[in-house]
Amino acid sequence: MASSVEFERALRAAGHGHIAGIDEVGRGCWAGPVVAAAVVLPNDVLNTPALLNGVDDSKALSAAQRERLAERILLVAADWGIGAVPAHVIDTHGILVATRLAMQIALLRLAQPADALLIDAVRFEHWPCAQQALIKGDARCLSIAAASILAKVARDRLMCALDQALPAYGLALHKGYGTALHQHALQTYGPTIHHRRSFRPLATFLAEGTWPVRAADVVSQAE
């Protein structure tokens, strides 16, 4: 299903002028933040969507495609913002609350407040403007798809930066998701401050006391 601008055009016809598409990445990861982006597309793109040909759900694109498209989105977007919420907030407040918080931070970082929101499968209570939650919005709505790409590129870069400080965990390879390599590193070194201790299997291992003592060099780099 190709992303379209029908939702943005309907809101524009209803009188809205600063319409933000919002999406997040990293909800299911074992490590790292949940990251969200908000993107406002200009009328030029709403009138001629071909200006952003290739923009789609970030999961359907390669890393190289996302990097290239992110540059184009940043060039043509009328406005954009990024929000990130770290692992310890995810553990204390839950992933859904943290996801909404990351999205709201992204919105607050827009240069001009949005007057309508198109959000991938999420709604905000008491947010002071019109909003619409779209299931699979990143595959249906161009501004949400653009936000999914910016969020994914921003998070991947963040995880690569963490990998420089914590090379034993392979974060640049798996970006914090649950892979055999990641699980092996956790079983060898234990979790860092960037790991989500409320997520399985980490929560189970911690409850059972089966994590090893972390190597001193890993501890020093994580803290």
Number of helices: 11
- In CATH, the homologous superfamily of the largest domain goes by the name Ribonuclease H-like superfamily/Ribonuclease H
Please name the CATH topology of the largest domain.
Nucleotidyltransferase, domain 5
Rg on CA atoms, Å: 19 Å
Strand order of the largest sheet: 3-2-1-4-5
Helix content: 40-55%
List keywords for this structure.
single chain; 223 residues; alpha/beta; Nucleotidyltransferase, domain 5; 2 domains; five-stranded mixed beta sheet; 11 helices; 5 strands; elongated; disordered C terminus
Can you offer a commentary on this structure?
The chain is 47% helix and 14% strand. It is of the alpha/beta class and 223 residues long. The chain folds into 2 domains: 6-162, Ribonuclease H-like superfamily/Ribonuclease H (Nucleotidyltransferase, domain 5); 167-217, no CATH class. A 5-stranded mixed sheet has the order 3-2-1-4-5. Strand 1 and strand 2 (34-40) form a beta hairpin. Helix 3 (63-76) packs across helix 7 and helix 4 crosses helix 5. The longest helix is centred in the last third of the chain and has 24 residues, at 142-165. The radius of gyration is 19 Å and the shape is elongated. The N and C termini lie far apart (44 Å). Mean pLDDT is 92; it is low at 214-223.
Quick rundown:
This protein is α/β, with parallel strands linked by helices.
SSE topology:
Elements (H helix, E strand, L loop, with lengths): L5 H8 L5 E7 L8 E7 L2 H5 L15 H14 L2 E7 L1 H7 L1 H14 L7 E5 L9 E5 L2 H4 L1 H24 L5 H4 L5 H10 L12 H7 L7 H7 L1
Parallel strand pairs: 1-4, 4-5
Antiparallel strand pairs: 1-2, 2-3
Helix pairs in contact: 3-7, 4-5
